[in-house]
Design goal:
By secondary structure, this protein is an alpha/beta fold. Helix content is about 45%, strand content about 20%. It comes from Sphaerisporangium dianthi.
């Protein structure tokens, strides 16, 4: 039984979604494009999908809204976000949350998979892995993904290392889209959300657990921002086709097809 009441969890997740939109004015459009790709590319009505860095379940639940026969294994190592997800979505058919750290080799063995993965999805999460961790994670992911299976990663990915002028224009396009979307005022930011959640007495034990497990894990911020980092790591892992399916400025939906 969750220590967080369902209604309280739902309120915090709704607030999470609002603050995320401050960084991603087309967040729902990107979700839609990603789920379109899973639906079109999986080749079956009941795909097995891994949600990498699922947070409070925003993508996983939207995916199941569209594909109710899918099985989604939603993976994260943040105890507070996982607790919110489990409290809000407990008992939902097809959805299972896994407390697993993608940076730990062997993470796939903890998932209890009974068939190859049709699609792995992620939004605004994998940039937390540094380049060596990302390479190892993608290689292990490839080992459980069927031939023709997909990796779909929506995130800010820069091209500054190969095209600095283009990178500057991409950031400018994104900034202008953000100003149009939030002309009346930006929502709270990531830090404000975490400060508020940490001050909620219902979440106090989870906040303390998060500080022990996540905040001290050596993250310095966005580690893998370059598009080339992801493309190279995916190709080395055995994903033979890699490209951008959707884009607004430097906000991209990167797709890779397993060979």
């Amino acid at each position: 039984m969750s220590i967080v009441p369902r209604e309280r969890a739902q309120d915090w997740i709704a607030r999470w979604d609002r603050q995320q939109e401050g960084y991603l004015p087309d967040r729902e459009t990107r979700f839609t494009a990603l789920i379109d790709a899973v639906e079109a590319g999986s080749g079956r009505p009941d795909p097995l999908v891994l949600d990498l860095g699922c947070g409070p379940g925003s993508l996983a639940t939207r995916l199941l809204d569209r594909l109710p026969e899918a099985t989604v294994v939603a993976i994260d190592a943040d105890p507070l976000l996982l607790a919110l997800a489990r409290a809000a979505h407990e008992g939902r058919p097809g959805l299972r949350f896994a407390d697993v750290d993608l940076r730990t080799p062997g993470w796939t063995s903890a998932l209890g998979l009974d068939r190859p993965v049709d699609a792995a999805v992620s939004t605004t999460a994998l940039h937390w892995l540094d380049e060596p961790e990302l390479r190892v994670m993608y290689a292990e992911l490839a080992g459980v993904t069927r031939s023709g299976g997909l990796l779909l990663n929506g995130d800010h990915m820069e091209v500054a290392d190969v095209a600095p002028a283009l990178a500057e224009l991409e950031r400018a396009v994104h900034e202008r889209a953000t100003r149009r979307r939030f002309g009346a005022g930006m929502p709270e930011d990531w830090r404000q959300w975490w400060d508020a959640a940490g001050a909620d007495p219902v979440l106090a034990a989870l906040r303390d657990e998060r500080e022990r497990r996540v905040a001290g894990a050596g993250h310095r911020g966005s580690e893998s921002l370059e598009l080339s980092t992801h493309v190279t790591a995916l190709r080395e892992a055995g994903f033979t086709e890699v490209g951008t399916l959707w884009q607004n400025g430097h906000d991209r939906l990167l797709c890779a097809v397993r060979g």
